[in-house]
Specification:
Distance between the termini: 5 Å
Number of strands: 14
Order of helices and strands: EEEHEHEHEEEEEEHEHEE
Structural class: alpha/beta
Number of helices: 5
Strand order of the largest sheet: 6-5-4-3-2-1-14
CATH topology: Metallo-beta-lactamase, Chain A
Number of domains: 1
Largest sheet: 7 strands, mixed
Helix content: 10-25%
Radius of gyration: 17 Å
CATH architecture: 4-Layer Sandwich
CATH class: Alpha Beta
């Protein structure tokens, strides 16, 4: 599995960071985990064959995680019409929102080939040895929010999505993941450090960091035998 961090901002784009989006590549097939803007532009600049995109998984419907989805669906609905993929939405109302967006902006309906599906706790996607499961988290009151566990080729990646401030909803797996990708915008460095120790991952990537001073705080208290990787836009990792 290859992970490319397209956007790593804490929620507001900056001069050097776009909003949240991670590209998963495996066996010539592509999957998006969140779709912060401008995700389709970033795919094109990475020279990603758009026809290889098979699914989009949103952790939740806050704008910094989903705003790029509207352009992606719009362009693949009328221009990149050889794209066929499924969008997994944590909010049922998100389906009608996307459909209405197309009606208002393009006077069109969603074409065949682009599917919309709800996210439910547990296994939500499986193909050719790849399994993606959703784990509920409590990031926002009134919103459905999920972490994702990705399994393939004997390796496990846990992407936490955004969590609540006390990290009482930190996702727990039955065994340590090979890679933990965790946000660092909504909690203290100390609380996150304790959760990471309990999770015992083999490698850690910190993304969605705010304020950036948390990086130095984390480095001072780190007790695992390796330092975390601080994600920046364009970072690529092989798992």
């Amino acid at each position: 599995m290859k992970l490319t961090f397209l956007g790593t901002s804490h929620g507001v784009p900056s001069e050097s960071r776009y909003c949240s989006s991670v590209l998963l590549e495996r066996n010539g097939r592509q999957y998006l985990l969140d779709a912060g803007a401008p995700v389709i532009d970033l795919l094109l600049r990475q020279h990603i064959p758009l026809t290889d995109l098979k699914a989009v998984f949103l952790t939740h419907m806050h704008g910094d995680h989903c705003a790029g989805l509207f352009s992606l669906v719009d362009l693949s609905n009328w221009y990149f019409t050889d794209m066929n993929y499924t969008v997994f939405l944590p909010e049922a109302s998100g389906e009608e929102l996307l459909r209405q967006y197309l009606r208002v902006t393009a006077h069109s309906e969603l074409r065949a080939g682009i599917s919309l599906a709800p996210v439910h706790s547990g296994l939500c996607y499986e193909e050719a040895g790849l399994r993606i499961s959703a784990i509920p988290v409590d990031h926002a009151v009134g919103f459905s929010c999920f972490a994702y566990c990705i399994e393939a080729d004997g390796k496990t990646v846990l992407l936490t999505g955004d969590m609540r401030a006390d990290l009482g909803d930190f996702p727990v797996l039955s065994s340590p993941p090979d890679l933990l990708v965790t946000e660092m915008a909504h909690c203290s460095a100390e609380d996150l450090h304790d959760r990471i120790l309990a999770c015992a991952p083999k490698k850690v990537v910190l993304t969605h960091v705010f304020p950036l001073s948390k990086i130095q705080q984390m480095e001072k208290i780190w007790q695992l035998p390796f330092l975390p990787i601080i994600a920046e836009d364009g970072l690529c990792l092989i798992v």
